[in-house]
Structures are given as structure tokens and as C-alpha cells.
Amino acid sequence: MAHGVDASGRAQVGLKTARTDRWWLAPLRIGVILGFFIVYATIRIFMNKWYWVDAHHYLTPLYSPCVTESCVPGSSHLGTWFPKFPVFIPFSIITFAVLAGFRGTCYYYRKAGYRSLFFAPAACAVPEPHKKYTGESKFPLIALNLHRYFFYGALVFGILNVYDGVLAFHGKDGGFGIGLGTLIIWINLVMLWLYTLSCHACRHIVGGRLKNFSKHPLRYRYWTFVSKLNPKHGTFAMASLFTVILTDFYIMALSAGWFSDLRFLN
């Protein structure tokens, strides 16, 4: 039985789409970006090395917190909670699971993923190739409803990233210092927090269930602030992907000894 635009009772146009513009450009561009990030992050978490710069206390967000005995000395800011992991298990498996879950279930990334990776549909007035759609009420898409819970986990890891950023103000002599890596880390922190706080789940948690804002003036202020960020959630989502990659790559390069950190204040 035909479904969608090919269902009985609907006009049989015979064309995939009558659009003449380059409708495929936007989903292609987003798909390339998402695909690159997925490949890059997967490779990096399985490398299990080049994530810590001891001289300046730089820890990449992909490995924060590093809490196993497999971590290199100095990188375990919160201590070692777990014994050594086998070589085939990434040190950052917990971090990756929570943050990948947060982004993967994000409303913006759902839209981007549906359009760019699953073509459901790729653009307006362009039919999707799938013959059946069951929505997000059945497995596995029902798991997307866990987004609000992943949001709480993202908040915890965001606070840990801020702690890492404070430790990055470390000079060569053990005192206060600022390098290019410090600035990159903090730019990434700003983008990550803008992405997190502009989240739809954050807006709902702050004030979505209130019936009377006048009785909750403080939460109303928070809700107003988040509401101003919310329209730019997609922009923050994509920009933070680039800052995470930039931060991780820079710290990896320093840790591997490819070049030295540019210091402004030691």
C-alpha cells in the first residue's frame, strides 16, 4: 500500500518535487558538519591519549572529567573513581554518553538529523523516501523523550568544564597564567553554556509549568532571559560544535608536542 504523497486519494504528480531552487544545499551542509563531528569525536574518544597538557593544566572537554586510574598524572581533578579501563574502552565513555545523549535528543539536532541524515523530509515540499512513519512514540525514537534528563547531566558537566577552565589559568611557575589555550577553552565554555541555557528543556524547567509569573518573580526573570536566548538555540548548537572541536584539537596538538602554547602571561 502506498504511503505519504503516493497514497491513494492524492494527486499523482509523478515528480519528486516541483521546486527549482537549491533546496538540497542546506540539509547537505548541515549533514556534512554533523557527519564530520561524529567521526571526529568517535576517533578522539577511542584514542585515549593527548587530552592533557600538564604545563598549563589544559584538559580537553571530551575527556572531562577523567576519573579512572588510566588517566595520565595530573588530569584527574576529581580523583580516580574507577580502576584502569581495558584498552578498548574509552576513558571518557561516561562523558560521551551524557553529552552525546544531550545533543542527540536535542530538539534542534532532531530537526537537523531528520532533514540531513534521514531525509524525513529533506526540505519543505520534498517528500521523504520512507514508506512508514511511527513518530517518536515507539522504540527507538521514544528514547528522544529523555532529553530533559540529559539536560540535568549536561548542567553537571558544564559546571565541571568551568572548573577545568579555572584551572587553565596556570602559569609555568605554578602561579597565574594565561595562554592562547586558556582563551580557547573559555570561548568554548561561553558557547557551551549559551547552547545549554538556550535549550527548550531549560526554558520549560525554569518557568514552563508556572501558572502565575507574578508569584514567582525570580523564576520569571530566569524564564525571560532563557526565552531571549531560545530563538538562537540552533546557532549556538552548531557554533558550539566548532568550538568543541577547536578546543580539543588545540589541546591535542599541545599534548602531542606538535607546537607550543602561545603565552600572554605566565
Automatic annotation (TrEMBL):
Keywords: Membrane, Transmembrane, Transmembrane helix. The chain crosses the membrane at residues 23-43, 87-109, 149-169, 175-195, 236-259. This is Succinate dehydrogenase. It comes from Kribbella yunnanensis. The lineage of its organism: Bacteria, Bacillati, Actinomycetota, Actinomycetes, Propionibacteriales.
